[in-house]
Amino acid sequence: MRIFGMGMPEMIVILLIILVIFGPKNLPKLGAALGKAVKGVREGVDSVNTELDSAKASVNATAGSAAGAAADVPITATAVVEDASAPAPAPAYAPVEPQAATADAAAVAGFCSQCGSALDADAKFCKKCGTPAN
After folding, report:
1. DSSP letters along 11-39, please?
2. Which residues contact 19 (CB under 8 A, 6 or more apart)?
């Protein structure tokens, strides 16, 4: 008889080593703890299986009701073709038109090196921060 690829002689050697390590007085405690651990693992696996079965049943029920409602509609894999006669949707943003040059733009000689505001053509100092214009 083979368990986990081990024969009876190997199992007896392992049991003897456990007996020597834990002693005869602690073996019942060890067995009880091992039994509780196995029972806890089994209960956990059973609860997971129950959850999976209930989830499968609810998915099947939902799919069944959806299939009953759409029984007349055949399900096929087709490409989506847009109607060429339909108007194109409006863009989500409005395109910005370039600003026309004005007379004020011609009067601007540059920008302030300190604050970045526009300088007049004949200005000696920035109106905003007072930095000399170069």
Report:
1. HHHHHHHHHHHHHHHHHHHHHHHHHHHHH
2. 27
Residue 108 to residue 118: CA distance in whole angstroms: 6
Closest CA to 111 of 87, 96, 128, 90: 128
Instruction: Spell out the alpha helix ranges (H) of 6-134.
Output: 8-69, 103-107
What six digits make up the tokens of 71? 């029984």
| DSSP-derived secondary structure letter, 73 | S
Tell me how far apart the alpha carbons of residues 121 and 117 are, in angstroms, rounded to a whole number.
13
Q: Give me the tens of pLDDT residue by residue for the chain, a chain 134 residues long.
A: 677 788 889 989 998 998 899 888 888 898 899 999 999 999 999 999 999 999 999 888 887 766 555 555 555 555 555 555 666 666 666 565 555 555 555 566 788 888 888 888 888 888 888 888 76
pTM (2 decimals)? 0.37
